[in-house]
Amino acid sequence: MIGNERQTNILADRYFSVIVGDLANLFLLFVQVPVIAGIICLIWSGTKADVRLHMALCLSAIWLGLFNSCREVVKERALYERERRLFLKTSSYLLSKIYILALLCAIQTMDLLWAVDYYVGLTGSKILLWVALFLGSMGGVCLGLFISCLVSTRDRAVTLAPVVMLPQVFFCKGFMPSDSTHGVVGTLKKLMLIEWVGRAFEHFLRVGRDMVILDAFLDLAGLLLYILALLGLSILVLEMEELT
Description:
Layout: H1 4-21, H2 23-43, H3 51-69, H4 77-86, H5 90-119, H6 126-150, H7 154-170, H8 183-190, H9 193-205, H10 213-243
Helix pairs in contact: 1-5, 2-3, 2-5, 3-5, 3-6, 3-7, 3-9, 5-6, 6-9, 6-10, 9-10
């Protein structure tokens, strides 16, 4: 039996070849960034960056990851089930997706941040800002993979993606009324991916002016736990399907 690490690497190589070989889909994945960055820069052109711009960046990072991954399991369901009966480990299969999607998200979020910083301007450490956006995008990746594990067709995955994304918009800072962050709404807000990404991003914006680095890394730790929980749920869903 192939070991976990070697199996993951083999699957990642295959997945990378599939993505690179599909030029139309690859173009669609990369054209998102200039379109999104162009819209953001157009809206905030000639103005100062504010909390709405910061949240727009964080939401864009989440969306990129979500869109990149929401079809990646369901489109290979027949192949996955066949290989699973032979030797495939569910964790290796999902990790191989994450490895390649992480590379894609790293490039996308770097380009997005560079464009907005160049045309609008952002404060704080650009490297740390990119870390926040990258991890937010990876949270979107794991959210997309979870959706892809739940549904039975690609059409349903594509339909669910914006439905899952909308609560991230509704609960983000700058959209919600300031007096509605308590009770049930406040609890739901803390369960949203945008809450953790946005908090870390805003903390990193203040690096050099305030000592907030510890708070930012605590938010990133929460974001990492969020990502691991989504990955665990995706593995659980695929494993449970085999028992039914």
